[in-house]
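Here's what a typical entry looks like (DNA internalization-related competence protein ComEC/Rec2):
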Amino acid sequence: MRTGMFALALGLLCLGFIPVMPSVGWLLLLVLAGACCLPTRLWPLGCFALGSAWACWSAQLALNDRLEAGLDGRTLWLEGRVVGLPTRTAQGVRFELQQAHSRRAELPQRLQLSWFDGPSIRAGESWRVAATLQRPAGLLNPHGPDRVAQLLARRIGAVGTVKAGELTRAVAPDWRDALRERLLRVDAHGQQAGLAALVLGDGAGLAREQWQALQATGTVHLLVISGQHIGLVAGMLYALVASLARWGLWPRSWPWLPWACGLALVAALTYGWLAGAGVPVQRACLMLAVVLLWRLRFRQLGALLPLLLALTVVLLVDPLAALLPGFWLSFAAVAILIYSFAGRLGNWRPWQAWTRAQWVIAVGLLPVLLATGLPVSLTAPIANLLAVPWVSVAVLPPALLGTLLLPVPGVGEGLLWLAGAALHLLFALLAWVAAWQPAWVPPALPIGPWLLVCLGALLLLLPGGVPLRSLGAVMLLALWAPKPPVPHGQVEVWQLDVGQGLAVLLRTRHHTLLYDAGPARGDFDLGERVVLPTLRKLGVAGLDLMLISHAHADHAGGAVAIIKGLPVARVIGGEALEEVPVQPCASSERWSWDGVHFSLWRWESGQSSNDRSCVLLVEAQGERLLLAGDIEAGAERAWLNAHEAPRIDWLQAPHHGSRSSSTEAFIRATTPRGVLISRGRNNSFGHPHAQVVERYRRYGMVMHDTAVEGALRLVLGAQGEVESVGRQRRFWRVQ
């Protein structure tokens, strides 16, 4: 039984490693082969084949429900019903439409839409909107999250921006929506959004600083309804029945164990229903149901069986769950606790078990966090040691009971006031811990050092006295495995995917330079969200120079976040910046790092901010790269006049490929072999312009576009070609 479930689970899990989805014919052949193996000694192989076939079929159905390529970027009138809780942000409202339809095209069943400065929208309402739709897409950077995979796992077939709309069918406020509004109106010491997150699973109202504190302390799971909350509510009911039975207060005619398991499951399902029954909640309820069934009838079969059964059931219900980091974290955490606590001799006191559980989880989840690219909280064991029981005892029970008793005047509000006070104290503590020790974003590891970290963690979690256990601590030193250095005379260039903006990292053997810092508008700072984490994952500990081409927000917006997050020795700018002291860009400045030559240029007579961009020319072993910022036709002519030998090999597309740049004379004189375009997908500026694209093609230039390929990598001086993150084959990236 265990062997079959294990093989079936492996087949279901292989979905995340398939580069190309097999055709229907191959799937049918796989099903036939699996069915033929079942009656033979090869039956585990048959289970594996059937699991793989089911996972691929489920994924193909989700792929088939994505927006047609011909509709990408088009604006359509469509109508659908709002599902889930719409999220109100500072910019507008974000919501999901289900059963969307249009007279002009066939649409996916589920859309995610944003409406800037949009009206109030309630769950259950039907809206007719004009929306610009896009196929699922997202920024794609080295070792970063893959939004396309996440949208596919949630069965989102298209995303879009609403231009106009009208309500076609009003409904009475959805009970969850109405309850959220009621919770947000209570007096809870300013923690109303936190209570809504705990009770309803709606974390959209949490402030940015609160999310940062939760992430830095490894306590995000406390405010996002997960298996811990479901298990806690179920455990309280189970413990209540068990205690009543132990004290002789439970009716003798009612067997206490079936009642305890049944009431625990009902409580968990009720809480899951209250929280909206999202995918993580469904997964937690399924896992709990399996554990309760094991406790009721199959406890003699061991502790690993319910985990394996829960894993298999969850994947059979939703194979695409394996594409989400939360899936791996939740199952890995349970497996680690079973591995560390099962079969130990002797009894631990409760406080000993609790403290050991925290460091066990911290060490055991380290390889999973590294593999998923998530930050590692060094303070998580200490923070969770205090925060988990605090939320479990002082916050969640009064929050749930207060919500239930809201109809009783004064009682429900009083309990929520107490829960808010407890939550306020918790956030004050977490903010202090986060300021003391922010989250660590470790450099990405190759497969060899990562396997050493896995083995080291497993050894450390063995019982004391086991031979070679201490060797695990030595193996964890692979976390700091040195990255192969850039050869002398070459420079590694990363043009990051930051949408409609620019950020280019250049690394020689011993020096690092960042050209532009990505865009920022309001609270949406890609310098903080994308550029800074990517630099850390690439192993950048500090910058010798940050060069900001000019002051436009799409180039300079992320500069403040970079300076706060990394040591920066020097900042040069084409223009003055408000919050960052910069040295002016001087056309005469030249220097060499590790055999690579750099030179600056700026058109002093430029009349616009774009034309005053600071331009960087990089030369490595005869191969030249020009980072041109947003210069336009006038600055291009001036640059040609200032350089006797204007030939270059690689060009960063000036002004994202705007029609006002990349002139015929400039391209003819520089004769680049390739161009690196940084732009947002379906951007409102129309970059790159069709005339410019045609010009690039006419001169035989190889075009590389971050909107299509993700982040781009070039080793200047190696005379090689450009690599891209998007070319790493994944079935969900196939256009």
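The domain at 69-172 is CATH 2.40.50.140 (OB fold (Dihydrolipoamide Acetyltransferase, E2P)).

More examples are in the samples folder.
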